[in-house]
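Kindly review both lines to help learners:
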Amino acid sequence: MAYRRVRSLGGPDAGPAAFADRLCGLASDADDRLYAAGDRRVVVVAPAGAVLDTWDLPAPALCVAVHEDGTLYAGGEGWIAVLSPSGELVDTWRDRERLGLVTGLAVRGDEVIAADVGGKCLRRFDRGGKFRNDIGKPGRGRGFMVPNRHLDVAFDPAGRIRAPNPGKLRVETYTLDGELVGFFGGYRGPDPAGFAGCCNPTNIAVARDGRIIVTEKAEPRVKIYTPEGRLLEVFGSGDFDLSCKNMDVAIDGRDALVVHPPVDLPDARGLRPPRREPYEPFELPPACAKDFHQFLVLQPHYRPGKPVGYRSSSDILFVEGVHLME
């Protein structure tokens, strides 16, 4: 695969597409629209890049997911909001015990899975908000290890749950009842098929054909695997700011990958804002806020060899994957 830049959307002068404080979550729907959640709202973006709408949320959002029928779910600290396909707030679930810090969401059929960093596990609910069971609860060597206080989740086409376990350096597969039925990755030294560092991968998305897309931090990059865990592609090395972490990723039916690399940009003196956990809001100095939270769009480019990357320290990357021509 190879990639080339097409267009950008966002930045401080982007009107409804601009985020004042933070952009945290991404999702796409059956019609390939993009939903970007941050601040206290969701921005809806058409496949061609035009902003279609903005929807208000009850609190700062950390993640977002879209059901097959267009219902949107957004999560944050202690809550999940349910919005209609037209953006009206339908319900808000509040549960400090089971929704301590929701940093990832996955929805399918009558299932809603919330990645709760507070409980270091996945919480399974029905679409009405009724709790069903925990998945990956810590104990006896099992469960999620999340030293960077971030956990993500996705459904695969078979209805199984795929989730990064950053502290164990792998991607795990669970049934809805919470049975661990497989995993791939692990530490493999310089082999890119595995994962390294304290806690990778951080974020996940699953394509409609079952391919698994994950992002890493330190060094920030993107990897694509087969459903069985065979590495297909690695890109982004050297293209993202080294301080990027917890890069959310979404993929639509066109194979367009969307990556948001959050980073604290330096101000005019070369200084960065104080490092904070991603769920803690902060104000950026005016010089630092320039070009913050942009959308960078890339499309396929038929060129053999390594992917062509574009440095983008605070952009969303739209990446369409294609097979190379011989």
In short: The chain has one domain: 19-266. The two ends are 12 Å apart (CA to CA). The domain at 19-266 is CATH 2.120.10.30 (Neuraminidase). Residues 264-315, 321-326 have pLDDT under 50 and may be disordered.
